[in-house]
Specification:
The structure holds 2 protein chains of 2 kinds. Chain A is α/β, with parallel strands linked by helices. Chain A is built from 9 helices and 8 strands. Chain B is about 70% helix and about 0% strand. Classes of the chains: A alpha/beta, B mainly alpha. Chains A and B meet through helix 1 of A and helix 1, helix 3, helix 4, helix 11 and helix 19 of B.
Amino acid sequence: MNGEGNSDPSTPKNPSPWLIVWAGLSICLPVLLLYIYSCSSQTIQIAGFELKQILGNQDIDAMLAELDEPELPSTINNTSTTNPQTNTESNVLAMGDDSTPSFINQANKKPFSLPAYELPVFADTTKHRILLIGDSESGGLRYPLNDYCLSNGHKLVLSLEWYSATTFNFGRSDTIQKIIAKYKPTYIFLVFGLNELYARDLKARKIAANQLAKKLRGIPYAWIGPANWDEDHGINKVFQSSADSATYFLTKKLTLTRAGDGRHPDVQGYRVWMDSIAGWLQTSARYKMAMKPPRKRGRPFRAPIITINAAKYRGY
Amino acid sequence: MQPNTVDTNWINQIFAPLHNPQLLQNIFGYSTKEPWFFTEFSFLAVFGVFLIFYAALVQKNTWRKLYIIAFSLFFYYKSSGPFLGLFALMIVSDYLFALAIQKSQGTRKKLLLWLSLSYSLSFLLYFKYANFFIQNCNELLSTQFTQQDLFLPIGISFYTFQSISYLMDVYRNEIPATKNVSDYAFYMTFFPHLVAGPIVRAKDFLPQIFTPQIINASLYKESLLRIITGLLKKLFIADYLGKYVDIVHELPSNFSGGENLLAMYAYSFQIYFDFSGYSDIAIGIALMLGYRLKENFDNPYAATNITVFWRKWHISLSSWLRDYIYIPLGGNRKGEFNTYLFLLITMLVGGFWHGADWRFMFWGLAHGLALAFHKAWKQLFPNPKNQWYSQFLSTLLTFNFVAFCWIFFRATSFGSAFASIEQIAFHTQWKDFTGFWLSRQEMGILLSIAAVIAFFPPNLKERFFQKLQILPTFTWIIWTLIALQIIIQFKDDVVQPFIYFQF
């Protein structure tokens, strides 16, 4: 232990310091090679599997920046193409009074869930810029919503799919404000709650839901409740009480066919769900909009999508 | 290793970091957001270069020692920034205290020991426990003390325990105090064990300073294999399991009983693979420099009872607690009741060491009670049956007890822990597991792989690693390349810090 000094005879001689050089090289060379490869435009594929580092940290701002600049209208689209003479009755229902925007109506508060084609078609054909925000359910709902948008002249400007997200993610983060500022939607669809059916801390969630509702102020929205696969512990009531009157669609009353996981609706389930929402939007929702049933289903989805995984992203 | 968009001028992209005005700041600076981990590829690259220069100094004792100390201090600076000064102060004062203790006799010696221990512990108590005491004092006595905004220096729990072991060993005349401050600095700062253990004993490590192992081909392969295994354990298994655990523990009442139960098992494997992965990397890196650190894990989940578990889990900590708390208290020499009492005290200290929270105390208490219960059981039934089924049942029981206790370790609060337990106890149904499998198949597969590895017979594991070492030396660059590419390909986007960094 006290054998200090360079010429200590007890020091074992390494057979070859070159082996240590080799050890160093066997660590830093692979790292260097992989770094160069990650910079290169070449990609090696093995059996169709791409060998490359795929993702970095999930940064919402960077994701937003990477997307193309949204095509914003010169003035926010609020013009109705409806012929007032042919749709007088419907418009009276929709208009409320002079100071109220055409899509605001407070007459009906209870959502219901009949398929759209059984309902009278609402006359207001305002073309909306629709923003879809939600948890994994929104990922399934976006396709039938896309069909409705294309058939009714609306534009789906962005689909933000925040997997495993809860009210806390939506209420506490500033992600929604950022997206609203960037995409300037005229109508927002909120679809979440499936991860909170068993939530018991309803007080905390109520606060977060109120925070979320505040973020939406000034923009018409439809707050779509979760597609319950089991009885919830009150999250629907929390959402309903936080949302403005007649803006909450109580999905739990619907019977939807489910995907293999037993939780998410399947393709047919999402279609039925969207049909019910469309019917409600035309007749009973506070912020009404034209949602005629699409003639063609399964049309290509071209709107930008942002996906976030709440398990990785701590955005609040 | 940043993700890249495809760029035709990719050579420029390779050298882009060199044009970054913040280059020097990035290399030499300290950032609280990006402390250096062994899992950082930048660390591995720098370590590789460090090794190449190390080869030139390996046969020159003083230079080799100073070179490693300098790199270790740099490593610590990258992890904890200005707290390097505090660490250096502690090293110098411990060194002086140890010399003084060695020269003293009788009461003076004892006094010096207490003074030095109090001094060493004061840093840990302040940074780690001050807010805990203030908070509890405010709650119990309705006082209005303000909580401090304290940053816990990384590794302080580990190096404080090392410092205590050194001072006590000198006091007991088990080792002589180092005559040269650089020897002690080498022992304390040696970067492989610096930030999260294993807690190295001076008597094991100091003799190695001037007689490191001869780095031959077999040692080189063993060390590289340990590093790669550790990286795979951490980045493949622990981090992915952690994703599921995080989701459930964010709000356990959101999830069914079955999901909570699986999260309990997932965390048991996560913490094992995380910490044993870290220990593998640390041991591998030390070995590559010619120093052998003691093993920290020995298939702990295969233990047939809780006493054996603690001989196999975080061995450096459990043996430290035994040698510096349990035995000095009296061990089993002061009657049956006192033995149980000392066990409880030791495990409470062990729990408290992990964090300033009642949850950790509770975790330690539960383990202490289990150890005491097992001791009593052994006295009642001194000759247990060694049939395969009794071994199997004992292992199952021990593992489930340990996994259950981890709930308190992982939960964010007592409320959250009890919510998780409530879900497991009263809301578990068979459909939870089928639902879990349908919606999280990858997690189910990963959980099964983790279980198989954790319970795999150790002799088979050893044989497997021996087979791997037959591969020729010159091919190891290629194997490392392949292993790293696999790690990059499959690792999670966000590498979680090692769990034990926070302790």
